[in-house]
Amino acid sequence: MSKRHLTRRQNWRIQKIQDERTERASRRAEKAEQTLIGGDLGEEREGLVIAHFGVQVDVEALDGGDAGEVRRCHLRANLPALVTGDRVVWRADNAGSGVIVAQLPRQSELCRPDMRGQLKPVAANVDQLVIVFAVEPTPYTNLIDRYLVAAEQHGLQPLLLLNKADLLRAPEHDWLQQWLADYAALGYRTLRLSADRGEGLEPLHEALKDHVSVFVGQSGVGKSSLINALLPGVDLRVGALSESTGKGTHTTTTARLFHFPVGGDLIDSPGIREFGLSHISQDDLLEGFIEFRPHLGRCRFRDCRHLHEPGCALLQALQNGEISQRRMDSYRHILSSLA
Ligand SMILES: Nc1nc2c(ncn2[C@@H]2O[C@H](COP(=O)(O)OP(=O)(O)OP(=O)(O)O)[C@@H](O)[C@H]2O)c(=O)[nH]1
Ligand SMILES: [Zn+2]
């Protein structure tokens, strides 16, 4: 059929048919809900939300004989908005699906501003932020520091991971090795490995066990390569799904939760990989530089900006070598970007 322009009347009729279809579908869903609730529902059980598609959610059973199996569940009305990583109470039906009846309390929340700039949770119960950087593209210290501050802000354990270690050359990359050593000296956990060659993955497996992690970092540092090495056989593009709504069909990308074969969970989506600093005050930023903490509140002036004020405790610490020039520059750079 050739492409043609539709008249206004034709457009109106198509829209009307679509609207009627949508309404019939939602009436059917309501009816199904009514027969389900109070009908043939199984007992209340615990589950884990591993993916979210608007009105439906994939729940993995956490207890019972079918623990580990996944069911597409409907949401009972009046539930708060659920996100991937949420723990829930659900009940199975006879048709291989189920109904979520309650959300269990969250240990933590990862939030991002939505299109209107309002903070919205995108994942729950994450506890580790794996900050990936690489020999190439050349890393920026203030980007790494931004992620470290974001980790502090959200109560996540940071793990600094230098990928593409196979490209490290001396003396060309000595500065990068020094960075890693500096971060380790501050108390951060650091790893060096090569995702493409599968070298040095063992300590990463260890660090991921018993955690729910997200991977962040600049484009091209090898996040996909790493995740593919850790999750052989998983196609990450499955995150993009078509979802039917009353306003027509559009593609959404949902965060998904994966289990690493050797232990630990990953929550991943393109949106989560862009997770970073948001809505942060200067005080939060200062707190996010962990070596600044012992010096905070000790400046002569209460509104000290730590630039050239006399009696500034941070500048004194900088002079004494307790704070590095690189981290101080990075702090100032991030501060100026917040304003
Ligand atoms: N030499 C080397 N190259 C690597 C390594 N890991 C990944 N690469 C390469 O780096 C490039 C980017 O890798 P990706 O995994 O797509 O990076 P990404 O961080 O997922 O990038 P985005 O999808 O843009 O966010 C690819 O060409 C990989 O083959 C490594 O350990 N060593
Ligand atoms: Zn000061």
From TrEMBL:
Provide the primary localization.
cytoplasm
- According to its UniProt record, this protein's enzyme class is hydrolase
The GO biological-process annotations, alphabetized, read as: ribosomal small subunit biogenesis
- Which coenzymes or cofactors are required? Zn(2+)
Comment on bound cofactor: Binds 1 zinc ion per subunit.
Per the record's keyword annotation, is Repeat included, yes or no?
no
Q: Where is the CP-type G domain?
A: 116-275
Q: Give the Enzyme Commission number.
A: 3.6.1.-
GO cellular component entries = cytoplasm
Annotated Zn(2+) binding sites: 299, 304, 306, 312
One GO term in the molecular function aspect is: GTPase activity
Task: Spell out the PROSITE patterns in the cross-references.
Answer: ENGC_GTPASE, G_CP
Functionally, this protein is described as follows:
One of several proteins that assist in the late maturation steps of the functional core of the 30S ribosomal subunit. Helps release RbfA from mature subunits. May play a role in the assembly of ribosomal proteins into the subunit. Circularly permuted GTPase that catalyzes slow GTP hydrolysis, GTPase activity is stimulated by the 30S ribosomal subunit.
Output this protein's name.
Small ribosomal subunit biogenesis GTPase RsgA
User: Organism, per UniProt?
Assistant: Halopseudomonas yangmingensis
